[in-house]
Batch of 4 targets.
Target 1
Amino acid sequence: MISAIVLINAEVDRIPEVAAAIAEIDGVSEVYSVTGDVDLIAMVRVQQHEQFADVIADRLNKVQGVLGTQTHIAFRTYSRHDLEAAFSLGLDDA
């Protein structure tokens, strides 16, 4: 699985609708409404690098109300959940 973080600028009066439309796109796992320099952050996860073009360029960027995006492709993913699963022996806590 390959992950990308997409920073999205949207029309301010359409942020909830833009977020909902982006969340419905296959390959988008989460959409966050955030404070700061951007309005939304979308997490995109695909199997092959080429699929980013389908999800981001061909669909996400064309959602009505999206003004612009910046995409950051992840080299590696680090999370507490992933690390715990990697070191789990499958034994129940006793």
Target 2
Amino acid sequence: MTAVEEGTRIFVDPDDPVFAGHYPGFPILPGLFVVEHVHAAVRDRLPGKRVSAVQRAKFLRPVFPGDTLTITTEFTDDGDGVRVSAVVSKDDGPVAEIKLRYSA
């Protein structure tokens, strides 16, 4: 099984408390939150499965308060699990490439 989904959009709330300390005077969204947004975009497609590995997390550019992210995902069945490859983008280009592995 390989399936591609495009267009999950997420607004980065400027009032999120994470921005108070990351970083004062230059707020950016922590990379872990980008990975969590990818997981949130795909978890309903994979009932009964959990993240078993973050196989890759490459951050290309910062994400700022008020940005809108678009997450494009590709699902690949690898026998005993599912690999999810995601590209996270803003209007002006990609900000991250994330690869997660899900298993039962």
Target 3
Amino acid sequence: MKLRDLVYGLYARRVEGRLDHAQVPKHIGVILDGNRRWARAAGGTTEQGHMAGASKIQELLGWCNETDVEVVTLWLLSTDNLDRPEAELAPLLGIIEGAVSDLAADGRWRVHHVGNRDLLPSRTQTVLKEAERDTEHIDGILVNVAVGYGGRQEIADAVRSLLLDHSTKGTSFEELAEIVDIDLISEHLYTRGQPDPDLVIRTSGEQRLSGFMLWQSAHSEYYFCEVFWPAFRKVDFLRALRDYAARHRRYGN
């Protein structure tokens, strides 16, 4: 074992030992950013970067499992990403499909898709549906896979769903205007029935949400990590939890 690895392991155990599990966030959202830049820095291809990023997901969920996290939302593909050239998009979708299938096959996670499924190719839609079906009975961490996801798209879809739902009930526009509130809109989000994220982590050094969970993250804490996603380590994860636990959450301020 290299000295650097030994020191890292000791430090990670020290951070973990001081972590108060009562202060661990129950829902963590993760913006998995930096795959392409990591690959470029390593002299690899974009596809290799995405593959390395996909392989990191199971590690993250293992760390979450050890620290009592209950819900994890992983942003794998934005609606903006769907405009990428086919030569780049097709391999990326294949990697995402493989990652989702691996999550379902693991047997520990309950997979749920968040995003506009109609925007995705039929094969990707099938993989997402099968993963949800095959894991719906599992009593483990709920893993939201955000594929074809955009925060504005989600809110637009929620409003559309709300209008269609009440049109079938014969609700007039005047009646609907009287009852529309935050809770009613929340019932039509992709994450309906789930707690909002307590903590949102973004890797790669970028300090913006880029539309991630716009509605749900109104009171979330944010943690921006300099490291690219494929290089994200357990100690980086533990630092995020430690930072979260040290904050005093003041809702509405």
Target 4
Amino acid sequence: MPLNAPRPLPRSAAEHGAEPSATTETAPRQATLAGAVTRSGRGLHTNRFATVRVVPAEAGTGIVFRRRTPDGAVATVPALWQYQVTQPLCTALQAPEGALVRTVEHLLAALSAFGIDNAVVEIDAEELPIFDGSALPWCAAIREAGRAVLDAPRRRIRVRRLVEVRDGRRALSIAPADALVVEAELALAHLGAMRWEGRIGPDTFEGALAPARSFGRLKWALPLKLYAYATGRPILRGARFGTTAAIVGGRVVGGMRGPAEPVRHRVLDLVGDLSLAGHPILGHVRAAHTGHVLNHALVAKLMRDPSAWDLV
């Protein structure tokens, strides 16, 4: 499917209150799923099989992960920036008692873009499935479940002034705006400069961003996989041609799914990472060569400065 081909919202989802864009909302309300959905697959880093069940939740719950650990206990961790911990090449959350949930960014991005404010994500392993490296399977799951509007107001984070973080040529900023808008650029050796910009909503996300796959250079991925198996660390153990877009020289093995697929995937990840603020963000984001580390730094810097935003 072309990256820039949006899909119409099916009637089943529209019946549960899905709005085509923020401009049509007169009195926004919180939303959850209209039913539970289950998906299974192997993780990108652990290569372990996991079953994920995403279930509706009442207003004010937010997005919460519940992981069943090997000893039978259940660890709960909210999808909030305070619980984010550094793990290689993914977004990870850690419960107060220590249980980890990793590679949550694709599901969080899809939930955020579709306006799902409240859900409980039950998982029986450490890592969410990577599927084909894109967020399309999560989009399909959300559409299958439908969206249910709740009788509670939806609060949003309105950015009041510029906040930015930098690391060399990498830069990420957010400024005031009436919706979540992203401008992103990325330059990769032999592939050149790539750009994407747009307003984040369900159609734009599913059509332009969700199909874009996790990517990496084969010459770096193979040594990392060998290192992971030699040291016992969970890094890229599940990476293969079916789960990532492998770059060799100036091409993607099997071809790109559309123009500038790598930068679109970086925006996909960014949408998921921004959702860790806990409420939808109204802001204009400019991203240059960003990744998870910089995304998390921006969210933390924004949220630690109450003078930079309002909850409206």
